[in-house]
Write a structure and sequence with these properties.
The chain is an alpha+beta fold. Helix content is 43%, strand content 12%. The protein has 10 helices and 13 strands. Strands 11-12-13 form a 3-stranded antiparallel beta sheet. A two-stranded antiparallel ribbon has the order 1-2. The chain has a two-stranded antiparallel sheet with strand order 3-4. A hairpin with a 4-residue loop joins strand 7 and strand 8.
């Protein structure tokens, strides 16, 4: 892939449990022309017995988001909060000896914070200013945009409580609250293939995230057949009805069965063949 013309970057999704633990890959190119040329090259490529099936994305990019003006000296607080997040999420993914936390401490505070924010997005799929967390950067970008950057405008700490700066004050409080809540939850337990049962809702959300793309104008389209829809709801229904053979694997069917059985056992009004009162039960025909 790196040898294709105009190659810029490559990112991979987490292994998808519902699709035999395959990964999706997203490749960026420096121009539309090189993207088209590279697609033709990759269409005839194989990795072992696996044939690549590249699809040119037609989805529109969400705009880069900019924070409200922040108070002077806020970077010091943000550095400490992002450091806590990095340590937590590194522990969660069993990343040890992170040099960023050591080497970046000698940098200018602005650069240090920017490196922390970039690391959280690229490695952990976490947007600090939104408090949103996804399995990988691609999903984060599709939901929250490609970046959320700080405003160049600054507010004096003595003026942050004024009525005209209420938006900035609430924003800073929300960022701090979101971060502290995530840190207080501690590391999530990451399941290995075959461990536990992932929720059906979570599995479907992952399927929708990688197989439904937003158009530059209004609307969405299916990555399998490129059919367009005015609303994401209809795109989701189409994906399940028309491409069930591609998204519903044997592994996912097993999860359906387990989930239905679990719901059945929890239902207090479920129908059973067992009588509730043996002493008053009269067999048919007697």
């Amino acid at each position: 892939v790196k040898k294709t013309p105009g190659y810029v970057s490559l990112s991979l999704s987490e292994p998808l449990k519902n699709q035999d633990f395959v990964r999706y890959a997203w490749v960026s190119y420096d121009s539309e022309d090189n993207c088209t040329k590279s697609k033709l090259i990759l269409e005839n490529s194989c990795i072992g017995n696996f044939k690549l099936s590249p699809i040119k994305s037609q989805s529109g990019k969400k705009p880069i988001r900019i924070t409200p003006p922040v108070s002077e000296g806020r970077e010091t607080i943000d550095i400490q909060l992002t450091k806590k997040l990095i340590m937590l999420l590194d522990e969660e993914k069993q990343i040890k000896g992170n040099e960023l936390l050591v080497s970046a401490s000698s940098f200018d505070p602005i650069l240090q914070l920017d490196l922390h924010l970039l690391y959280l997005r690229k490695v952990h799929g976490y947007c600090y200013y939104d408090g949103e967390e996804y399995d990988d950067e691609r999903m984060l970008a599709s939901k929250c945009g490609p970046a959320h950057v700080r405003s160049k405008l600054r507010i004096s700490p003595s003026e942050i409580h004024r009525a005209e700066n209420l938006q900035s004050k609430k924003f800073e409080e929300k960022v701090t609250e979101n971060t502290n809540q995530r840190v207080s939850k501690g590391p999530r337990k990451l399941t290995q293939p075959g461990d536990g049962v992932e929720s059906i809702e979570k599995i479907y959300e992952d399927i929708y995230a990688v197989n439904i793309m937003k158009l530059p104008e209004e609307g969405f389209f299916c990555t399998f057949c490129q059919k367009k829809f005015g609303d994401e709801v209809y795109a989701r229904k189409h994906l399940v009805r028309k491409h069930e053979d591609k998204i519903i694997t044997s592994e996912l069917k097993k999860l359906f069965d387990q989930e239905m059985f679990k719901n059945y056992t929890k239902d207090e009004n479920r129908l059973t063949n067992q009588p509730t009162n043996i002493s008053t039960f009269i067999p048919p025909g007697t």
